[in-house]
Amino acid sequence: MSLSPSSRDHRDTSALRPSVRDREGSAHGGHGPSSDLTLGCAIRFVADDEWAGTKRTPCTEPHDMEFAGVAESTAPAFPETAAARDAAFGEQCRDWALAYTAMPGDLMHSRAVTVGFLPTGEPSTWPGGDHYARCWVFLPHPVTASIRGAGDLPA
Length: 155
Fold this sequence. Notes:
- The N terminus is likely disordered.
- The protein is globular, with a radius of gyration of 19 Å.
- It starts with about 40 loop residues before the first strand and ends in a 12-residue tail after the last strand.
- About 15% of the residues lie in helices and about 30% in strands.
- The chain has a 5-stranded antiparallel beta sheet with strand order 2-1-3-5-4, with helices on one face.
- By secondary structure, the protein is of the alpha+beta class.
- The longest helix is centred in the middle third of the chain and has 20 residues.
- It is built from 2 helices and 5 strands.
């Protein structure tokens, strides 16, 4: 039996969708390190010395990367090369990483943590306004606690 939209039973079905949360307001500006919209902690997968993907994991489980924020580029075209991507997103992602970890900038360079980013779009989505990249802090080895606000991380 098929139900048309006008003949549907309009009972409250919110209890049937436990993974959906009601929100008020807008997600605009909600991508910072303190937002509940952040991606959190993850394990990265590398293949042929290239970042091949991630798997989200609770920050209390072993992980080697943490989401720090979202960078927005003003570049007129999609950054095709690594150098162009760094010019488009690198500085903002480093700023997000510093804010996220509470680490002084001069110390970040002397530690084994690195900052990386992954554009959310591709050349075909750039003209439509997808000028963003997810910023990540990569750790040299898995940890079982978040580095958010940690300050000086071990060398």
